[in-house]
Design a protein that fits this description.
Blueprint lengths: L1 H32 L8 H20 L3 E2 L2 E2 L1 H28 L1
Antiparallel strand pairs: 1-2
Helix pairs in contact: 1-2, 1-3, 2-3
Length: 100
Amino acid sequence: MFVIATFLQALAQILHMIINIYIWVVIIAALISWVRPDPYNPIVQTLYRLTEPVYTFVRRYIPTVIGGIDLAPLIIIIALQFLDMFLVRILMHLAYRLGA
């Protein structure tokens, strides 16, 4: 059981890291969108490819533009924070229970 507990703990930590990195990607993409970046810049294209599919998914179900401001990045960050707190804690708790 110790091996499974260690695996779940490692999985929880990696998931936590991936969620935090993606939160920073969303924040950077939102900040860059305010300054009209060069669409041919490879960094801008990468940020666009990483965030636009998720923005499109959220915009399909929730009206995100309020007063000319797009709230899709904020909604995504809140959802990611929820997943981080919920899934990572469940995995860590399960790992703790299996290791004890």
